[in-house]
Amino acid sequence: MRQYISHNKHSIVPVDPDREEKQMHRSCHILIFVFVFILVAGSLPAGAEEVNVHGFISQGYLQTNQNNYLAETDDGSFQFNEMGINFTTAVSDRLTLGCQFFARDLGDVGNDEIVINWAFAEFEYKNWLNLRVGTLKGPFGLYNDLRDFDALRTSIFLPSSVYNEWLRDGLNKLKGIELFGTVILGPLGLVQYQTMVGQPLISMDSGTVKFIQTSGGIDSISAIENDDVYGARLIWTTPLTGLRICGTYIYSNMLYKGIASDPRMPGTEIPLTVDTKNAQVCVFSAEYIYGDLKLSAENYWALSDNTATATINIPGKDPIENIVHQDIDVKDSYYVSIGYRFAEQIEAAFYYSEYVSPEGIQGTKEKLKDQCLSFRFDINPFWVAKLEAHVMDGKFGVLPDNDGHTYNEWMLYAAKMSYSF
Amino acid sequence: MIVAFMLCEVMVSGRISNAFAGDVMIIANKEVPAEHLGWEEVNGIFLGKIMRWSNDDRIIIVLHSNDDIHEAFLKKYVKRTATQFSNVWRQNMFTGKGRIPVEKNSDAELIDYVSKTKGAISYISSDVTLPPGIKVLAK
After folding, report:
1. Has residue B18 been placed in a domain?
2. Contact B81/A292, CB-based, under 8 Å?
3. Which residues of chain B neighbour A88 with C-beta distances below 8 Å?
4. Which of B49, B86, B51 is nearest to B67 (CA)?
5. Cβ contact A86:A55 at 8 Å
6. Which of A127, A137, A152 sits opposite B50 (nearest CB)?
7. Alpha-carbon span A58 to A134, nearest angstrom
8. In chain A, pLDDT over 70 holds for what percent of residues?
9. Is residue B131 included in any domain, yes or no?
């Protein structure tokens, strides 16, 4: 029997019976984490260049005027923070080792549990051929690499049409192997390439699972089976000063099993299997920097062949399997953005982002149009404060507000403060 | 840790500022297998995209702590502002990629380090007289 989080009547996240105990362990982990953080920061002697240590911590606040988005934002939410500490060392002229511990909280996702964000050995052979093995960040668009580190971008949220916040876990961490390098093209500029094969690390309490439960017509997921993911990215630094062109391609297969319900038969639980074959994601990106002005645009494509198999059990009869095929073809999702640094400490950015979901079983498409205005204040080299407002149109990825309603037109306000060293 | 903290601080904004109205030149250790670099190659090296010389020796990037010399260098060769440049290296720091540049506080320190370090590349005012052990790659 599924249970639901009692204090959040709109959550669809199954309750873990050991949740309190796990939360206590997580709290202990965080205390240890902070202790180690302070200890390391204070005890390394000057001149200890063998191990580089860097860290960051950020705390945000989210508020919506309608709907809940990513957290219980209808009432305002501080469940929006990230922290990380990393260690890197050059073992030899060609070999580098590194690891970053990371914790985040965004509504029901993360819950400040400390995880390995990246951990790899990097062997440099030539400019055009290098190797990285371990837990790696997936190649995805121009900005996925800096997704966990708030202080590197102007906006608090990257545009959701390309960088879906729910799916961050699935794209951000792969256990595998990567070949990368730079090819110098002379007068044509240079190309950086990255190719990767790996196993995505998607936990059952990840945003990816919660996203499928929120938007995929499935009440709870009991298992996910992932084949290896193949990814490649090319970034061309063109001869036109400041212009970069990027292309990303990702191929994967995934199967998940869970329980769906039929509103016509309240109380019935229908076992459901969704097999996603030949899932291909492409991102086409361009960025142009001229002095303090930065323009960028990215277009997101998603293609896959989905087969959903529902098993309907009727007492006294053989189970009936209802099979539905669906070809996913999303090519209309994109954003355009403009950013400008007005002064040494103040930067502003605006983006327009539009996501259109594939057709649902009823033949309808969900959308989310997002107009975002952000201000970034560099208080000093270590502290950054940000404010932003989103004018939203659409319900894709949206949860009902505290009265159980969803609205097409709504606002999201976000504030965030980060410290890094 | 302290060094990293100081490096980050200096890289981002805590630079020593002296009036500087002259030109900058790109210099390197005399063993480096290059005689001339275009701004595109300098750009690729200082943004961490090109990590090795043509003989596969590692490139050691050396930054000048003088704010004005640094900004004149960025404007002429890297085509980025100081904030954009520091963000590129902060991104590398937080993704574990690339090796953080070395920084020197004076012309004398910088010249001494570059002349003694295999694979080192840096920039300095064009008015400075260079000792043996250093070559000019772009002016």
Report:
1. no
2. yes
3. 96
4. B86
5. yes
6. A127
7. 26
8. 86
9. yes
| Angle value at C-alpha B92, between B90 and B95, nearest 5 degrees | 110
Give the residue numbers spanning the domain of B98: 23-138
B116: tokens are 């003694």
Contact A44 B51 (CB under 8 A): no
Res. B137 pLDDT band, cuts 50 70 90: very high
Note the pTM of the prediction, 2 decimals. Answer: 0.85
Q: What is the mean pLDDT of residues B79-96?
A: 91
DSSP A354-368: EEEPPP-TTS---EE
Of B40, B81, B100, the CB nearest to A291: B81
Beta-bridged to residue A33, according to DSSP, are none
Chain centroid to CA A160: 9
Residues A81-101: pLDDT tens digits? 999 999 998 888 899 999 999
Q: Do B40 and A344 touch (CB under 8 A)?
A: no
Q: Does any domain span residue B127?
A: yes
Identify all chain A residues contacting B83, using CB atoms and an 8 Å cutoff. 341, 344, 378
- Out of A88, A291, A421, closest to residue B96 by CB: A88
- The CA angle B92-B93-B96, to the nearest 5 degrees, is 75
Asked if residue B16 is part of any domain, the answer here is no
A381 neighbourhood in chain B, CB within 8 Å: 8-9, 12-14
* Nearest Cα to Cα of residue A128 among A182, A191, A178: A182
A248 forms beta bridges with A233, A283
Question: With a CB-CB cutoff of 8 Å, which residues 222-251 of chain A face chain B?
Answer: 237, 239, 241-242
Contact by Cβ (8 Å): A388, A30: no
pLDDT tens for A240-255 read 999 999 999 999 998 8
Instruction: Give the Cα-Cα-Cα angle A91, A93, A98 (nearest 5 degrees).
Output: 40
Question: B125 has which bridge partners?
Answer: B24
Q: Which of B14, B52, B94 lies closest to A54 in CB terms?
A: B94
Q: Does the beta-carbon distance from A421 to B96 stay under 8 Å?
A: no
Specify the DSSP class assigned to residue B93. H
What is the number of structural domains in chain B? 1
Please name the amino acid found at residue A142: L
Which CATH number applies to A50-420?
2.40.160.10
Task: Supply angle C-alpha A398, A403, A406, rounded to 5.
Answer: 30
Cβ of A348 under 8 Å from any chain B Cβ? no
A335, A352 in Cβ contact below 8 A?
yes
Structural domain boundaries in chain A: 50-420
| Contact criterion met (CB < 8 Å) for A421 and B4 | yes
For residue B127, give the CATH number of its domain: 3.40.190.10
Chain B closest CA to A368's CA: distance in Å? 29
